[in-house]
Design goal:
The protein is an alpha+beta fold. It contains 3 helices and 6 strands; from the N terminus they run H-E-E-E-H-E-E-E-H. The longest helix has 14 residues, at about 105-119. The model has no long low-confidence stretch (mean pLDDT about 75).
Length: about 120
Amino acid sequence: MSDIDREIAEKVMGWSSGETEGSRPDIWLEGIAANGANIMMKDEWNPSADIAQAFQVVERMREDGYDYTITKNHDDAGYTEFWIQCTNGKTLNYGAAHFMDESEIPGAICEGALKAKEG
């Protein structure tokens, strides 16, 4: 697991680290999950590369009062750039992340979320 994925789990999702019995990998627990209902296997949590998990991050940030904007700009020379902004209404560039390729969207979502949380 990458550092950014761990930080997203802890700082954005609000998960805490847990352990399972036997040889199963460590897990992330959401809130108090004594019954095991809300768990995520650590080796399966990869929002910086998985677009579906990255949008779980977006949804959590929205629950916390943040908005996401993804902008794609083109110029006459064929140059394309993308921006993700994660704002809470206080400042426009709160949690902005710049990226060049659509494959980088999950990582940019995560980067923007962490920057916004660090505020």
